[in-house]
Amino acid sequence: MTTIAIENPGHTGAADDAQLNASFARQPILNRDGMLCGYEIKVRAPECAAQTADAAHAAVHAAVHENSDADAASPRAPDPAQRVARAILHGLLQGNVRGALTGHPAYVDVSREMLFDEAILRLPAERFMLELAPTIEVDEALVARIVQLHGRRYRFVLDEVTQPNEAFAKLLPYAEVVKIDFMHAPRALLPKLASVLKSAGKLLVASGIDAQADFETAHGLGFDRFQGYFFARAQTSTTRRVSAPRHALLNLLQLLSGDPTVAQLEAELKLNPVLVMHLMKLANSSGLAVGHKVTTLREAINATGTNRIARWTQLLLYADGRKVALEDDPLLQLAATRARFMELAIERLPEAGRDEADAAFLTGVFSFVDAVFGGSLESTLNLLTLSRPIQAGILHRQGVLGLLLSAVEALERGAWDEIGTLCERLQPLTVEEVAELGLAAGAWAGVADRSAEGLERIED
């Protein structure tokens, strides 16, 4: 959550002293190879803007009736839409948003007010793609402003396109990217639309891709980017490659659940050279440096610690079998972000201790483990010998763990009203805090390969 205080909006008074809160969430965008290449920023606009405007207008109205010279002397009511635009623009510049992007570009909806506000020039042009909604009012002034911003290297996206219309035709020459609403665009129109836009040199994004079949269709039509959670769904025909044998990871997790000795861990790890290699890299990472290079497996176990090895193994389940940097691996990023969010969020609740935080982390990290193993989620969870509250939270969304899991899933979709309803049962947690924790979790996941709390870069 980013809190913005708007300075000098036009007059002084209680209404103007209020702070406007803008909250943000992120949704992954993948390239044709299935790797992360950007994030859509989902914005929750300040809720108090309309009330602030109403209060200001009431103050002006009262002044007019009290003083015949009010037209010259009364304060000017601020434009609520402009105040909201300024709050969002300032919020996008905050460190928590930048950290959650983990070096990737951000796609963000911009209103007409945002485009005409000079504060937009503070957004780094190389990091932000400006999305134009199909409902935006297109006139000569808007086109002129887009041309002006384009001259400053800002890039534009035509958002939520279902089929061409007059606004689409007017804005297309100034757009570098066209985002097609894959679920609502007429399927019969998609091949021709994609072909024409590709011929015109536009980069195509398919949004709403939550099923593997839709990804394959869009991929076959030549789309360049894909937005949705198809990569986190269990596949019936194929399972995801992982960077170590699944049975080895499961055996290690089962051993770790029973408080093993160093000798037991050493014996299990020696059976799997890939895991030994990863652990040695982790032990020698900058975050875990012990003053000298770790050269033996026993040293690596002692330097890393069983708790960290357990988390490392849990996240390693999601690591792609290709030579991929952690911050570009969408499934691992989602698992790490969800798990970290669960851990941070439960710590905000009454009477939550270390055991509860560990259970929350496990709930998040294993909430879609079927995407790796295929088959039934319940059977995979049984294999992992997870506790009943964790299983109930994942399978049936029961208990506090289930509520927090529902909250983070809603956050991933930018479903702010749903988050608000869940927060009524998760007091004192608020929607703003949920958004704030989501960004913090995303930043943690994105730099986990350089952190003592996370993973070493996954490489084969």
From TrEMBL:
<dbReference type="InterPro" id="IPR001633">
    <property type="entry name" value="EAL_dom"/>
</dbReference>
<dbReference type="InterPro" id="IPR013976">
    <property type="entry name" value="HDOD"/>
</dbReference>
<dbReference type="Pfam" id="PF08668">
    <property type="entry name" value="HDOD"/>
</dbReference>
<dbReference type="InterPro" id="IPR035919">
    <property type="entry name" value="EAL_sf"/>
</dbReference>
<feature type="domain" description="HDOD">
    <location>
        <begin position="242"/>
        <end position="432"/>
    </location>
</feature>
<dbReference type="Pfam" id="PF00563">
    <property type="entry name" value="EAL"/>
</dbReference>
<protein>
    <submittedName>
        <fullName>Diguanylate phosphodiesterase</fullName>
    </submittedName>
</protein>
<dbReference type="InterPro" id="IPR052340">
    <property type="entry name" value="RNase_Y/CdgJ"/>
</dbReference>
